[in-house]
Amino acid sequence: MLDPGNHQGKFGADYIRVLASAAGLIWSQDDVDLDTVDLCLKLPGRTPRGFSPRIDVQVKTVSTLDTTNGVVNYDGLSHAQFNNLAGPDFTVPRYLFVVHVPRSSTNYADLSTFGLLLRHIGYYVSLSDLSPLPSSRRDRHIRVKLPMSNVLTAESLRGLVLGNIVTPIG
Question: Is 162 exposed, middle or buried (CB count within 10 Å of its CB: 0-12, 13-18, 19+)?
Fold first, then answer.
């Protein structure tokens, strides 16, 4: 059995994989996480954006959702993780995904005659319009605000990959 932290993180990544599958996307994962990319999501073939457009994502999970004025406040990014997501100078667009999961793993999924239910919900944000931080404070965590309107769905995920969704922070 996985320890609670790894179990929660794995469920969050699997939640994204299910949405990617529903969106007709394929996912891949680097064999070593050196640059804060948990999953690469792409749409195979020719598209209006070019051949096989993709995005890179960092997936985080929370069991308690901190919200204020229409935003999710996420305090779990380390300085290095923030800097690996912030700024406009990435060849492949990068996003932070935060998945709100139940406190108890027994509530992650539920099966009924209507289908499979995954709990709870995921949010996304691009940090491309923020600047990386100076290297002097590597021990601190950075608060990121994700608009509650940026809900991860199969449609929004596909839109992110196709570049049809602009995600300013505020």
Answer: middle
Find all residues with CB under 8 Å of 100, minimum gap 6, and list them.
Answer: 61, 62, 63, 65, 72, 120, 121, 122, 123
Q: What is the pLDDT of residues 84-132, one digit of tens each?
A: 999 999 999 999 999 999 999 999 999 999 999 999 999 999 999 999 9
Strands 26-28, 67-68: pairing kind: unpaired
Amino acid in the structure at residue 107: N
Report the SS3 class of residue 94. Answer: strand
Q: List CB contacts of 109: < 8 A, sequence separation 6 or more.
A: 116, 117, 118, 119
Q: What is the pTM of this model?
A: 0.93
